[in-house]
Fold this sequence. Notes:
By secondary structure, the protein is mostly helical. It has helices at residues 2-27, 36-39, 42-77, 90-123, 131-162, 167-190, 204-215, 252-257, 260-275, 278-304, 314-351, 354-368, 376-382, 388-399; strands at 197-199, 222-226, 237-240, 247-251.
Amino acid sequence: MRKGLILLWGGILVSLALLSLLVFYSLSPPEISSKTLTYFEQAQVEKGQAYAQVRYISFAAGQALTLLVLSAVVVLFFHRGWAPLAGANPYLQVMAYALLLFVFMAVVSLPLDFYRGFVLEHRFGFSTQSMGAWFADYGKGFIVNTVLTVAMFAGLYLVLRICPLNWPLVGAGAFVLFIALQAWLWPLFIDPLFHKFEPLSPGPFKDRVVELAASAGIEVGDVLVMDASRQTTKVNAYFTGVGQTKRIVFYDNLLRDFSQWEAELVVAHEIGHWKHHHIALGMLLGTGGALLFFMLYRIVLAGYGAQAGHPATVPLLLLFMTVFSLLLMPVQNTVSRAFERQADRTSIELTGDAAGAVAMSANLAVRNLADVQPHPFIRSLLFTHPPTVERIAAFEELAGREKP
């Protein structure tokens, strides 16, 4: 029993220590190197650092707030029992508790979410939304996340109750199936709630996209343009979906403000993800992560002397999920950066334009105010992609150019 308490509360302390280090290193950005100044003006780098600093600190504050509030809920209410909600049906009780807790956490975090999503983005000139439009999107996101969270908790607790002995294994499998179903349905039903999508217009660029995909041995799915400019001036492109719902999506402002060859490099990178089956590999790794989580959560439950399927364990589960996700983040992001480097190499193999990739990376970083040279600790904890200076160095090596 003691192991479970040490695991949970030790994990909380380690998490808070990581967040404290994140704030410390955010307040002390590294000196800008001469190599970085080869590609960027000092004022550009410093502006990116200023934007990133606020984002890092607000992320740390949000995570710390979640940990502290959920810890307080567990300490104050776990052993005092829960008044029955939604009758005696344990699954309805789980859904009721999950809903109340999710709404409570949303109310607590709303001021910080508003600052990060609206105030900060307007301050640095990214957001194109009015306050009313931002709250409309926030409300839709809240409803979607609430429904998915309550459904996930109900399904999970069903597994916990019907598989009392081997629920970690069954729960891991059920979790991955849930993620796969979500990845399949999201482009069809959720994305259209927030954006309008139009097929990429026929022409030389679309032909080039199809040609790049064919050269990688991939039959491309839908190629769509999203009205991202309705929300932001940032530019991007991404791949999403699985099976018949897989698609490549361009921000409309990427196609409007960047050259065709830069857009080709972006889509070649996304095709690289498909070629190397990164979605499938991510789900496979997610299965292992989910299994590890449930095995550790079983130890935590033993520490509290609680049954896995009891409705009162909802806040305990959410607290441990928060701790586990934060502590696993450096591992996840290490894998993600490896995937991104692999996709970068594929983009050069497909286009043969490593020199162009250098210029494109620099342009994207300036446009999006990227932290091009983060502190190594911040890079390890938060960066899903290699920092821009690191990517440029890799492109230069592929181009066979002499590094500055």
